[in-house]
């Protein structure tokens, strides 16, 4: 070994005897660098006892410092940096020793992003400690927020967004994870509509908590409201309207669900008429609850009222008048049901004449001038 100093017993450098310097000092006893004796510098410092870098003896740097005791970066001995610092003890980034960055920070101690060691970023924040987004480690972002720890959307990990909010924590919509939106809100926490997960809307609201309409999940509207909580109409789920209201809770009409209106009201809850469900009106009222006439359901009038509760006439159900009243409760005449009048009254309850049904008058009551009824038989 050859040693050289500056005359003050301080070695300047040391050689292994074959022209290969092992180390060098600054002449003040401080090593400047050290080699492995084979021509490779092992480490270097700045001349104040602070190592600047170290290698593994094969020319590969292990770490580097800023000369103030702070390591700037470290690798695993194969030229791959493991981490880098900003020179104040603050690690800037770290990798897995295979060249893949594991995480990065902003140099102020805040991690900016992290990956899974396979080059896939796992999450990112805004540099203030707030996560901006997270991935599933397979390249799919799982959720994103607006930088205030509020998730903006969430995915199921296959690129399918599960739900979205408005950045203030209010969910705007939700999907089933298969790309189908399940429901939507107005951003104020009020659900606007819902579907069955198959793309069919089940119900819709006005965004104020009131359901506007509902269907059966097969695309058929079941009922509709006026948006104020009052159902306007209802269908049977097959697209046939069953009944309709005036929007104030009063039924206007009802059908049998087969397209035939069964009855109609005046919009004030009073039935106007009723059908037999086969398109034939059974009875009609005057809109005040009083029946005006009734049919047999086969299109033939059975009786008619004057609208004041008094039956005016009655038929035999075959269209032939049986009797007629004066509308004041007094029968005016009666037929035999075959079209022949059997008897007639004077409208005051007194029979005027009676027939045998064969057009022959059996008897007649007449006034003798003294207001005495004289009945004369045949």
From TrEMBL:
Protein name: Uncharacterized protein
């Amino acid at each position: 070994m050859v040693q050289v100093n500056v005359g003050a017993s301080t070695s300047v450098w040391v050689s292994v005897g074959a022209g290969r310097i092992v180390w060098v000092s600054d002449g003040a006893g401080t090593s400047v660098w050290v080699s492995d004796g084979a021509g490779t510098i092992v480490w270097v410092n700045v001349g104040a006892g602070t190592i600047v870098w170290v290698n593994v003896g094969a020319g590969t740097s292990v770490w580097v410092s800023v000369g103030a005791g702070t390591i700037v970066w470290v690798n695993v001995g194969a030229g791959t940096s493991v981490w880098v610092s900003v020179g104040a003890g603050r690690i800037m980034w770290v990798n897995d020793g295979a060249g893949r960055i594991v995480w990065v920070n902003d140099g102020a101690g805040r991690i900016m992003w992290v990956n899974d060691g396979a080059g896939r970023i796992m999450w990112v924040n805004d540099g203030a400690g707030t996560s901006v987004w997270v991935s599933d480690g397979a390249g799919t972002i799982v959720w994103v927020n607006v930088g205030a720890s509020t998730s903006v959307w969430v995915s199921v990990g296959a690129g399918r967004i599960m739900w979205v909010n408005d950045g203030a924590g209010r969910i705007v919509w939700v999907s089933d994870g298969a790309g189908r939106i399940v429901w939507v809100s107005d951003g104020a926490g009020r659900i606007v509509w819902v579907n069955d997960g198959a793309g069919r809307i089940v119900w819709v609201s006005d965004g104020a908590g009131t359901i506007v309409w509902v269907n059966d999940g097969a695309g058929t509207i079941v009922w509709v409201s006026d948006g104020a909580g009052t159902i306007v109409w209802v269908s049977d789920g097959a697209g046939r309207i069953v009944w309709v209201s005036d929007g104030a809770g009063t039924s206007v009409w009802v059908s049998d669900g087969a397209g035939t209106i069964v009855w109609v009201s005046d919009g004030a809850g009073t039935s106007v008429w009723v059908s037999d469900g086969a398109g034939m009106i059974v009875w009609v009222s005057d809109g005040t609850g009083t029946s005006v006439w009734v049919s047999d359901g086969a299109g033939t009038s059975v009786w008619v009222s004057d609208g004041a509760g008094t039956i005016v006439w009655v038929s035999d159900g075959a269209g032939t008048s049986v009797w007629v009243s004066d509308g004041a409760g007094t029968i005016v005449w009666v037929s035999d049901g075959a079209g022949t009048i059997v008897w007639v009254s004077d409208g005051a309850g007194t029979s005027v004449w009676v027939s045998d049904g064969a057009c022959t008058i059996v008897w007649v009551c007449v006034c003798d001038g003294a207001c005495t009824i004289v009945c004369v038989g045949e």
